[in-house]
Amino acid sequence: MGELLVIRHGETSWNRDGIFRGRADVPLSERGREQARMLDTALGEQPIQAVYSSPLSRARETAGPLAQALGLEVAVDERLIDISFGEWEGRPRAEVEREDSARYRTWLTEPARFRAPGGESLSEVLARAWPAVEEIAAKHAEEVAMLVSHRVVCKLLLCAAFGVGEAGFWKVRVDTASVSTLAATEGRWVVARVNDTHHLAELGAADRSDF
How do residues 165-202 score in pLDDT, each as one tens digit? Predict the structure, then answer.
């Protein structure tokens, strides 16, 4: 049985300020870089054999310190990139809620039916990300591997493993720099850990707005 550590990237200023990110390549904030260092400390003793990452810098910056400490290269997988929020990218949440209110309500209440203007649906994100997970798991069937991705991707992977589909999107929390664990065993997926942030305790209370 192998294990896959599913890690959300560290904080960016756009997380803190409530701005939709998507494919915008926003770097980590200072707090996000500190979170990445804490991940390194927390996971550095685990027998991780491979590190995968979204191509966006906030994910690669989060994966980098641990990969370097382990003597590994970060394998960038385009399928782990964040959802495209299309015309919402770079816009504050309050502005989107005010100016695109009907679609914003759909996002909050019926996520399986949601698509931002010019963006992706959750089903499209899962359709590209889940095969990446299966390939990583097959390649490291008896090992521990980790991937660093984004809120939407990480939540969808957990929803898929739980068997609740995209409709369960808001039933799962995935905070910045959190660790969740999937295990592939006997032809099924087991969720062994969800949204573990104990390694970030020294930074104090985190933003719990699920954004």
Answer: 999 999 999 999 999 999 988 778 999 999 999 999 99
Per residue in 122-177, pLDDT (tens digit) is 999 999 999 999 999 999 988 999 999 999 999 999 999 999 999 999 999 999 99
Is residue 88, in this structure, part of any structural domain at all?
A: no
d(CA 106, CA 148): 27
Which residue among the candidates 9, 140, 198, 199 is catalytic per the annotation? 9
Residue 97 placed within a domain = no
List 140, 150, 198, 199, catalytic entry: 150
Spatial strand order of the sheet with 188-196 comes to 74-76, 48-53, 144-149, 2-8, 179-185, 188-196
**Number of Cβ within a 10 Å radius of residue 199:** 17
Domain with 158, as residue range(s), is 2-83+121-203
Smallest CA-to-CA distance from 9 within 198, 147, 132 is with 147
pLDDT for position 11: 96
Is 9 labeled as catalytic in the residue annotation? yes
CATH assignment of the domain containing 62: 3.40.50.1240
Question: Is residue 92 in some structural domain?
Answer: no
Within-domain flag for 188? yes
Give me the number of domains the chain comprises: 1
